[in-house]
Amino acid sequence: MIEITQTALGAVASPPLVPGDRPIDLVHLSRMTLGDRELERDVLLLFERQIGFLMERIEFGEAPVAAAAAHTLKGSARGIGAFALASAAARIEEAASAGNASGRALGMASLRAAVRDTQAEIAGLLSPA
Fold this sequence. Notes:
This protein is an all-alpha fold. Helices cover 74% and strands 0% of the residues. It contains six helices and no strands. It has helices at residues 6-11, 26-32, 37-60, 63-80, 83-97, 101-126. The longest helix has 26 residues, at 101-126. The N and C termini lie far apart (47 Å). The mean pLDDT is 89.
C-alpha cells in the first residue's frame, strides 16, 4: 500500500484557483519543473516553438483541426502556468468543436493577445540577466 504524507501532498499541490496577474504563473512553472532552472528554460523554449506551430492550425485549419490544436495549446499552456492563454485556447476549442465559426473568429483576438503576452513573458524569462 502507498502511504501519502503531508510533505508528499505539498509537493504535488494543484495550481491556484485564481492565477496571478502575470502571463505565466512562475510558482506553478517552478513546481512543474521541480525547481530546475535548466529544465524550466528547455520547457519554455519548447512551448515557444509549439505556439507558432499550433497557432497556424488554429487560425487556418478546418474546425476539427483548429479544435484539436486549441486543445493541445490549452493543455500545454496549463502545464507551464499560462492560465490566461489556456482559457483563451479553451474558448476557441469549444467554438471550433461546435462548428461555431463566428465564436471562433471572436475568440481569436483574445487568443492572439494572450499569445503575445505569454511570448513577451517567455522572452523576458529567457533573456540573460
